[in-house]
Amino acid sequence: MLKKQIYDALELNENSGRLAVVLNILIIVLIIASVASVIIESITNFATIEIFLVIELFSVIVFTIEYILRLWSCTEDKNFSRPVIGRIKYALSPLAIIDLLAILPFYLPYLVNVDLRVLRLLRLLRLFRLFKLTRYTRSFNLLKRVLIREKEALIITFFILLLVVIISSSLMYFAEKDVQPDAFVSIPHSMWWAVASLTTVGYGDIYPISPIGKLMASVIAILGIGFVALPTGILSSGYIEELKNDRCQSGDDIGDLERLVKLKKDGHITDDEFEILKKNIMDEIN
């Protein structure tokens, strides 16, 4: 019974009470506060303020307890119902990995010896706490659905972009290596120029000076406008389709609920049947 209550409180479903809503809001506030402290303490004048240490310790304690409780209560979910295998499966899920990465940087220096550079990297990993918000926001869930829906098109697009980068950097290397041997040292070095040009950023630290190099750079820059826009177009169309599906689904579910209320009012179904059918509709919405 206790495990079920904890699961409902953490997952915030239709069985959750008001206390669960308050708990989840507090966790969201703590996530934002902990990420903000990581950002602010990087400023030299604020690096030694003790409030950031207090926020960090409190965040780690709360997030550790949350992770342990989620790992313990996850067997209430039918997808993770087996006591051992289910918990291992849950621990390897994306959201559980994010939860672990949110607290791991605090504990690792006490478990293994790390040098200062690795320690700084681990401290930077605390920013992964921001991804914990994916559990609480509809927009992140929408983004996840769009990425899953359009994954094949995105993979093909990025593969094409990779080919364009390789071809562009190779052509520019052979065009400029004799004129600028220090700038275009090799094809991998030239890839930096290709990426900057294809994304139309053009930092200007490396640029062609030969006539053939300038000609190729012009063509590559024009092509880059179209190629870089491809992932944006795919994601935009995916968002529009998902929003349309949400609206259609929402309209259908509201209509079903209205018809269900009318059936109950007319006496065609009992109160128990009404509650069961309403729960089924709410499960589909969630």
UniProtKB/TrEMBL annotation:
Its main location: membrane. GO terms for cellular component: voltage-gated potassium channel complex. InterPro entries: Ion_trans_dom (IPR005821), VG_K_chnl (IPR028325), Volt_channel_dom_sf (IPR027359). GO terms for molecular function: voltage-gated potassium channel activity. It is found in: Membrane. Keywords: Ion channel, Ion transport, Membrane, Potassium, Potassium channel, Potassium transport, Transmembrane, Transmembrane helix, Transport, Voltage-gated channel. GO terms for biological process: action potential. It is a multi-pass membrane protein. SUPFAM superfamilies: Voltage-gated potassium channels (SSF81324). Residues 22-239 form the Ion transport domain. This is Ion transport protein. It holds the Pfam family Ion_trans.
